[in-house]
Amino acid sequence: MNIPNAYLLAISCISLAGCHATSNRTPDSRVSPQDEWMVPFKSTSLSDSNFEEFDRLVKDIGTARIVVLGETHEDGAAYETKARVVRFLHERMGFNVIVWEMPIFQASLVERELDSGGDATAVFQRMQYPWNRSEVEELFEYVAQSKRTGKPLFFAGCDCKFGVVANDLKHELLSFLDDFFQIGPDSIADPRVWSPLVKWLVSPPRVSFNSPLEVAPIPPSVRRYIAASLDKESPPGESMTVADAIESLLITLNANKPQLLNSKGCEQVDIVERLLLSARLAERWHNAPLIHGEEGDRNSHLYRERAMAESILWLARKSYPKEKLIIWTGGVHAFKYINNPPENSGSANHVDQSSNPFPECASDVLYSLFGNDVYVVGFTGHHGAVGRAESAKFPPWELPTVPGDSIEQRIYESGVASAFVPLRLLPRNHWLRTPQISCVYNGMAIRSVWPLSLDCIFYYVERRPSHGVEPNER
Question: Which residue segments constitute the domains of the chain, with CATH numbers given?
Fold first, then answer.
């Protein structure tokens, strides 16, 4: 069974001694009707429009302008729960921009096609793994339907990663950039930029797990960007690195901004500038040592986190300055202060946060800029599996048993099927403001003072593998 190293790391970090939960559901003394630390809710269905059970969440979110929804990738139950939370935030609290952990250019195409009335099923094919899943498709249709109402939900992206993007989209991006730098009959871009960009985009990207990737052949329509063959080295002094190419395009854009604004429009100029700034950080991230390798660089992850945070900042301040944003992302990007080591109780059934390989997350940057205008939500379950239900190459895998003294086990023993734990407004002396174990971070048992990292935790009993919507997954 092939399991990505990120998950292997999370699982291997858990000490299983004393971690097994009890099989009988004896009520815990901390789980009582009088203790309102958790709020049960009945439905995770997107079709359920009764949001009265989320009244406590309205108070807890308050005037926050950015809500970050983290997850464990490939958890179908998390996707379904998140979808209902998105509808609640949109219809009840006025959030009207959903920002995905996907490339800016890709998301801009989705938004353009949805806004022009494109068929939701067809446009959904642009969604990349891990969200081209049936549990997300219903939410996508909801976003498309909102375009025909007085409260449209806008679609945007914040990632700099192209690793899981289909090759035809990479070719589309190259065509878009080539057309953008055309003013009249001539291109204002240095012709040397295209060869390194094609090699970078179409070659296998840097990835964090050991799985072979096939290099798709470069079609003739893209080869026109390259004066010489890709196999032929440029003469000394005439070649460019990827970093040089990106920097050259940024310099060209800024030097010709008045003409580009006049011919391309402000929105397109803004998108290309953000794309190139994000790509500059992505290139540094791609070239950094693998963080999971023996020679790994802990700081390599910062490049991607910074790129994502800067893109969200751009969306919040420039593209949607008066709107409220929902960020749909993985848990690793969502947590605040995830690397601050908590008090170590000496118990064998936990790891402390200092073992986390990611020294900073995108939400750290956002929180430093926006403060309590950022509200971060994590999603967790008591037991179950995650993965791709239909995949033989990446089959689902069972997550480790939650520790007996974890937050998940305490909710489970109460008999509640679904609940959320609002953390932001807890009293100063509340027991949840002391180090507690939770598996909200990719199923990894971590003891932490959770209100420092999250503002709310959503719980459901069983994690479930997600399901594909097409027979051949990318």
Answer: 1-159+324-474 (3.40.1660.10), 165-300 (no CATH)
